[in-house]
Hints:
Layout: H1 9-20, E1 25-28, H2 30-36, E2 45-48, H3 52-59, E3 64-67, E4 73-78, E5 81-87, E6 89-90, E7 117-118, H4 121-126, E8 135-138, E9 143-146, H5 151-157, E10 159-160, H6 166-172, H7 175-187, E11 190-191, H8 193-202, H9 211-223, H10 227-236, H11 240-243, H12 245-249, H13 254-271, H14 279-294, H15 308-321, H16 329-347, H17 353-356, H18 361-376, H19 379-384, H20 392-395
Parallel strand pairs: 2-5, 10-11
Antiparallel strand pairs: 1-2, 3-4, 4-5, 6-7, 8-9
Helix pairs in contact: 6-8, 7-10, 10-13, 13-14, 13-18, 14-15, 14-16, 14-18, 15-16, 16-18
Amino acid sequence: MTDKLIVAPHIYKVIERLQEAGFETYVVGGAIRDLMLGRPPKDYDISTEATPEQVRQVFGKRNARIIGKRFKLVHLRYSGDLIEISTFRRTPDETGQIPGKQRKSPIPENMIFRDNEYGTAEEDAWRRDFTVNALFYDPVHDDLIDFTGFGIGDMHEGIVRAIGDPLLRFEEDPVRILRALKLVGQYDFIPDPETKKAIKSSIYLIKHAANSRLSLELEKILKGTYGHNILAAFHDYGFLGNFLPYLEENWNTPARSYALELLAERNNRVQRGIYRDSISLAMAALALPFIEAEIDNGNRGDLWTPTKDSKYKIRRILLEAFTPHNMIKRLTSSAQRILSIQPRLRYTEARSKTVTSLQGYTHSRELMMLQNELVWKDENLSRRWPKFVSQRKHKKKRSGKKHRKHT
Ligand code: ATP
Ligand code: MG
């Protein structure tokens, strides 16, 4: 565990500017966990005393946009990055809940629907889900604040502990069950006994969570580099059937093992900076073994013969594998292209311009290299298929902005 937490220079600057304007401001969330464990944070969440309007006054209207209806936060463009800044909030009183009878299906009476009252830093810490997620770090004064009193100890011991009564906290927001298991998979943490018991007995509540929130979580899991461990944790705790039923139903198949190995290898390469964090590549890696198994009864690495029929099967399996999530259409189509090109890369003897100029080639080559690493071990493949090819046609579509959309 690292003692001194070093935040990215532009984040330091943003916090310093808000503090100089008179507002208490901290780094919160996942970045603190990563910094404490010596991992590079993938992004930073900033929490401040300033209201969204005040944040805008500090950074100017052009760079700071207020987003969100239910609760407002600021998206700040700063030094080429997009930073999320939220205002301290406190747990809402009873008016934050709406009665079950207003809903189509009965909902747990403690479920929270509004979370929009400003508060102090301490109040903000107590409304957070787990002790390791309630640490506040002020990089300017190098001050790590642990309002719950358990956060630092739990970080050291690797414990996921709900703040307050875990049963109540999961009832208030069932997505917290998923978030607990993400911490288990991502950091190899274990839940404390009470939280563990509550996870198991509350899993059924997840049906009350908005599908859009769960789909967003799936996208984050696939984009990140611990998806293979997180999905395994979901399975171990009996949650996967509620999240990705297709994967759970096929858990004891060789295709499923191969799928997680491919995803693990993709994650390894993203961590090492060799691959970009493409969600569609992660989707393709996860679905590929099931497609291999279904078409031509293939084992690991046995690709299918491309036909019109195989094209439809690829799409059907992709859709099935990620049901019930509404993956963005663009991602599914991109994963489909990546998969469709696979047999051509493997079975075309000489380098072919027709193949290298296909949209999706680069990612498909990456998927091929994953299979090659795990199964084929063919040294010629990487030489036959170049990493970079001029794709003038597709380049036009890409924006030059640093913040590209998900690919
Ligand atoms: P990640 O690395 O995936 O971003 P994170 O913990 O930062 O992990 P975010 O979704 O970015 O997750 O949320 C930031 C912080 O907001 C969390 O650390 C937690 O303190 C708080 N938070 C997020 N979702 C909830 C929730 N459903 N209930 C309570 N607190 C939450
Ligand atoms: Mg975060």
